[in-house]
Amino acid sequence: KFTGKISSYITTISKTFSDISYTLCVDINTQFIYLGTLILILLSVNWQSAAIFTAALVGMYVLGRVLIRYDMHYQRIATDATSTKDGYLIDAISNFAAVKAFHTEHKEYRFIAGEQARTLAAAQRSYLWAIAFWAGMSLFIRHLLWPAIILLNVHFVLAGVITVGQFATVMSCALLFSSNIWVTVWYVSQFGRQFARTDEAHEYLFG
User: How far apart are CA 193 and CA 69, in angstroms?
Assistant: First the structure.
């Protein structure tokens, strides 16, 4: 374990740990309370709509766990490559006299360029899995949740099970859910990335 990489990982932990704490304790918890409130409102109209929302959330959670695992995997690789590159930069600058004395500038440059290419490749793979994660969440919201909610409650209105006012309440909740769930998805995706970076740093320093 060379000192430059240790220094880079300490910087990573110090930057991300406070972000993780705030995201988990404030942002994500707030979103869960908000979504729970919407489900209770829907439950007061009809339990079927609340069940559809709950099923959509469970499905998004299951699919999201699978997709975000790959994103976190490549985020760890990118974090390792970035810290290695930064570590060699720190060591090269710290030992500038030795680098010049032994004429190893080109060797250091080639190594750093290789780590930069490795970082870029891992970041691109992570980005592709992040796109897949957002696409999966969109599948549940746009193509499963909305059609099911609208068709079910239109049928209830026509059958006289709910009133027009109750139908408007359900549609308002669906609209609020659709606009708010993207904030929740964003917080979860960022939390996964932050956790992957911190976990990689912690494993290197203390593992």
Answer: 10
Kindly report the pTM of this predicted structure. 0.69
Residue 200 main-chain phi, psi, to 5 deg:
-65, -45
Cα(19)–Cα(147) distance, rounded to whole angstroms?
36
Model confidence over 30-42: pLDDT tens digits? Answer: 888 888 888 888 8
Say if residues 188 and 28 touch (Cβ distance below 8 Å): yes
pLDDT in tens, 113-153: 887 787 788 778 878 888 888 888 888 888 888 889 889 99
Question: Residue 154, SS3?
Answer: helix
CB 5 within 8 A of CB 89: no
Instruction: Give the Cα separation of 78 and 119 in Å (integer).
Output: 5
